[in-house]
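User: Some background: our group keeps a shared notebook of sequences we're curious about, and every so often someone picks one and asks for a predicted structure to add to the entry. Today it's my turn. The entry only has the sequence so far, pasted here. Could you supply the structure so I can complete it?
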Amino acid sequence: MNRLVILSNPDSGGNRAAEARFATLGGISGVEHHVTGSREALPDLLAGIVASRPSALAVNGGDGTLQAVLTALLSRDDLTVPPLYALPGGSTNMSARDLGSGPSLRAALRAFLSLRDRPETIWPVEQRPVLELRSDSGAFYAGLFFGVGTIVRGAEFWARELGAARRTGEFAAGAVFARGAWGLMRRQPPFADGTALRLRCGDVSMEAASDLRVSLLFVTVMRRLFLGMTPFWGQGSGALACTWLDDPPRRLLRRLPALLRGRGPQLRPDEGYHSRRTDRVSLSLDESWLLDGELHSGGGRLMLAPSRPLPFIDLRRELS
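Assistant: Of course. Here's the predicted structure to add to the notebook entry:
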């Protein structure tokens, strides 16, 4: 029998209605259930879990919860990371959907628990890197999706307009995206406010001066975003997809379908649409930035690179 560990964040959006279900997990043979406390206590909790050598570790929370776990695991070189599974216990669950989960928390939990009695040799495990971010202040984070510009304005709109209503799911995120895109096309503040930054993808500088302005920029290791969007089309073999739009991009309404599907031939740099594949991105800015749905203020110089490959369990076939 395999030993499965589940780490839950009870404050994540999708977990508030499932508290009773997870409270019973501790009574299942071969299954341990832990609840996250403060962010400061998480590294020690994870170190203890990993030291006990579980067969697999499921992270039950939102994108921010998974980001906190990845940050804690990759902050130390002496931890052997077990196979990871992202349960969709948050609001948008963009990370969990990309890494091999489905929209239903109940179904994803059932699929994970089925691993208890299955040989580890036949588990669907894939080695994938995540995104490592280091700032010039010495801060370190690990996640999957980094963004600035209109992406930050959209997150602020979510917190201000939808947070109190506790809207969850990909369609709620899609509503925020639609509002941001409309504001960008109509040049409505704050969505249309450009962001000044200095950008370097790999060893190619994207500006000679410090007056580059973008409507939005994101860097990700993900293969799909929410609602199946794939807005990356850059050439190269790097693990990071880096996409940005000039401020303002031209013909956005006409180019939007191509942008959402990453149809490069229809997205011209002279109209303000850019995408690259690389293994290193560095940028400097004076505004807030976003990592996996969580806002960080202060700006500064940021360096992004892929992590070492980590084992992620993909149970989408069991959920289909």
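Suggested note for the entry: Residues 4-130+309-319 form a domain with the Rossmann fold fold (CATH 3.40.50.10330). DSSP finds nine helices and 18 strands in the chain.
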